[in-house]
Design a protein that fits this description.
Elements (H helix, E strand, L loop, with lengths): L9 E7 L5 E6 L5 E3 L13 E6 L8
Antiparallel strand pairs: 1-2, 1-4, 2-3
Length: 62
């Protein structure tokens, strides 16, 4: 599914640098990250998230 319009948001796998929790985030055009389907990424007070993989919608088969 391709997003159309000014909403150039992407989904990505991300990991909390503090506890190692992995989840899916939405990457906004300004670079900010927002967890998908939940208000908090993990139980850390101020999680520091690192993007692991982008373009989950992209088919990378040879």
């Amino acid at each position: 599914m391709t997003l159309v319009g000014n909403d150039d948001k992407r989904r990505a796998a991300a990991e909390c640098d503090d506890c190692g929790e992995i989840g899916i985030v939405q990457i906004w055009p300004d670079g900010s990250l927002q967890p998908l389907g939940q208000s908090n990424f993990c139980d850390c007070e101020s999680p520091s998230l690192a993007v692991l993989e982008t373009d989950l919608d992209h088919d990378e088969r040879p």
